[in-house]
Amino acid sequence: MEDTILKTMQDVILKTEDLSVWYGETRAVKDVNVSFAKHKISSIMGPSGCGKTTLLRCLNRIHELNQAVKITGRITLNDENLLDIDPILVRRKVGMVFQRPNPFPTMNIYDNVMAGYKLNGFRLKRSRADEIVERSLAGAGLWKEVRDSLFKRGTFLSGGQQQRLCIARTLALEPEVLLLDEPTSALDPHAMTKIEELLVELKKTVTIIIVTHNLGQAGRISDYTSFMYLGELLETGPTESVFTNPKHEETEKYLTGRIG
Q: Which residues touch 169 (CB under 8 Å, ≥6 apart)?
C-alpha cells in the first residue's frame, strides 16, 4: 500500500499507523496511515460508507463505547499512543462535535458549556467557571449573542447557534485537536458560512479535522485533504493539489461527481 503519511508536513500533531477498524467481521477502515498538521484544518472526504466517519471517531476513541468495534494499529498525539491511555483523558485532548447540534436539552447555556467539567468530576470556583464560559463562548463566536441569556436552555438557540454552543462546550476543556463530523450538513447556508469562518479563526489555537461531504467547504477552508474509498485512504495532501491534480482515478471521479 502507498505510504500516505505526509512526510513533508511540518509540525505533525496527530497521526495513525496501520489503523484498522472492524465492526464484527467487517473491516470498515483498512491500514490507514495519515498525519495531521498542528494548527491546520484537515478535511476527510469520500463517498458514503467509505469509512471517513469511522476513521474520525477512532481519533478520540469514541468507538470504544460500542463493544462490537475492534481497533488495531496506532494513533499518536504528540508521539503518545492514544490507545494506551485512559479514553476519558483522550477525549479531553481530542474533542468531538457531531453532525447535528446536540446541546443537553435540560441544561441552560452556561451549564452546557461547563458540562465536560461536571461529567469529569471537576469542582471549580464560580469565578473560574465564569471565565471558562466566557472564553469558550467567545472562542465559538457566540458570547456577544448569548451573554444576556446564559441561563436560558440551549435549545432556545437557532440551529447554527446550537452548533456553535456545542463547539464552545468542546473548547471549554481546551483540547489540542477538534474533530467535526459534517458539522454544517443540518444548517442553512448562512449558518454554514458562520461555522466555516469560525473554524478558520479557531485553527490559530487548535488543530481541526473535519469530515465533510461538501466539496466546496473542503476547498474553502481546508489546508489538507484526504480522500477515502472503500475503507482505504487513497490519497492525502495539500487541498489545492488534491483538487487540481488528484493522483488516483477514484479521487478524480469523486471530485467530478461520477462517484459519491
A: 103, 112, 113, 115, 116, 136
